[in-house]
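Hi W., the nickel (II) ion complex you wanted:
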Amino acid sequence: MIRTPIALVPYIALATVIFIAVLWQAGDQLTSREVTSGTPDVGGPFALTDQTGAQRSDADFRGRYMLIYFGYTYCPDVCPLSLGVMNDALDKMGPKGKAVTPIFITVDPARDTPAVLKTYVAAFGKNWIGLTGNAKAIETVTKEYKVYYKRQPLKDGGYAMDHSSTIYLMGPDGRFVTHYDESIGPDALAEDLKKRI
Ligand code: NI
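Structure:
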């Protein structure tokens, strides 16, 4: 039987603590490396209705880039601003812009019918696709894209929709490439898109 001399106990305890701390840190680094190196799990299949009433799925856009924004047509500020930035950026890209389909997906399907979307997206440009669907289909696609939205009652009896504001770039294989904030502006957005396409 080996007896540990009592004087060594504090050193053994200290060595044990250091050993655990080193393992702990190594574990953290491993975890963060996994998170930063992989493609974020954003996007996925959808089955929605476009502004002409046609059924559209994510598979319809394979081979093309999708520039997607989620919002609602009654939005007073950030939606028109974001769609304007997206459209201006695609215009500035010249021929390369033709490889990108700009898509607006509503988070307010109760009011944003295909007819409402048709008028709305036409105001931004002729290549736009506006998508709506039943509540379940919108819930599915917003979960896939990690979009936040919440109905906010207004004093006049109507409602607004709180929603996250992110522009998503999806690749020709349907997978997430990157995302932007509308504050990027059309020039910087066009520059970044040109580098990637
Ligand atoms: Ni909005």
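Residues 30 and 118 are 48 Å apart (CA to CA).

W.
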